[in-house]
Amino acid sequence: MSLRIGDIAPNFKATTSIGEIDFYEYLGDSWGVLFSHPADYTPVCTTELGRTASLKHEFDQRNVKVLALSVDPVESHLGWIKDINETQNTNVDFPIIADSDKKVAELYDMIHPNASETLTVRSLFVIGPDKNVKLMIVYPASTGRNFNEVLRVIDSLQLTANFSVATPADWKDGDDVIVVNSIKTEDIPAKFPKGHKVIKPYLRTTPQPNK
Question: Does residue 177 contact residue 197 with C-beta atoms inside 8 Å?
């Protein structure tokens, strides 16, 4: 099954490093980040999980719950978490799914046979409170993820979910945003009273409305 942006994220029950979970129940009304790892005790993943744990405050501020996935069993996860905490000077307290039967990996199309027949690639999904897939990023096993970019995209997704705006290239929280084309130029002042610029009829910018 191949997931696409806008699809409903499949629910599942799984054994994790913090016990049994139901994915939807775990997320509740929060946003979610689900991301996979090729295997336990792998160097790049060790840094990624440590980085995620160190950003707990940033995810909490954005009402985001995080789950990781690896095909190894829980006992392996627990030993690996000790290594992660030691080497990355952090505390991993989010669940790591033990996906030994590859049920979740297959549900989310995390195994790409031309890359590896058995290992999950570095897939990352951002899932909204409506349980829709909002973002998908796939990295090869050799390249660690940029979690500043993950946070930046979540900021954009949450902003654009609440206002009729889009975010331009290299946008970061606090920068000007683009007024979507469905808003007529003459209607912009009423919707965006902070002011706006008309660069081209199809390219209008305004200060970020929630700042």
Answer: no
Question: 208 and 159 in contact (C-beta within 8 Å)?
Answer: yes
d(C-alpha 25, C-alpha 20), whole Å: 11
Catalytic residue among 9, 45, 67, 141: 45
Q: Are 166 and 43 in contact (CB under 8 A)?
A: no
Q: Angle at the Cα of 87 (from 82 to 88), degrees rounded to 5?
A: 100
Token pair of 35 as six digits: 């991301």
Q: Is the pLDDT of residue 77 over 60?
A: yes
Active site (annotated) includes residue 45: yes
Measured CA to CA, the distance from residue 58 to residue 66 in angstroms comes to: 11
How far is Cα of residue 135 from the mean position of the Cα atoms in its chain?
7
What are 142-171's pLDDT values in tens digits? 889 999 999 999 999 999 999 999 999 999
Rounded Cα distance between 205 and 194, Å, is 11
Find the mean pLDDT for residues 117-136. Answer: 85
For 163-174, how does the pLDDT look when each residue is reduced to its tens digit (9 = 90+)?
999 999 999 999
User: For 181-210, what is the mean pLDDT?
Assistant: 97
3-class state of residue 125 by DSSP: strand
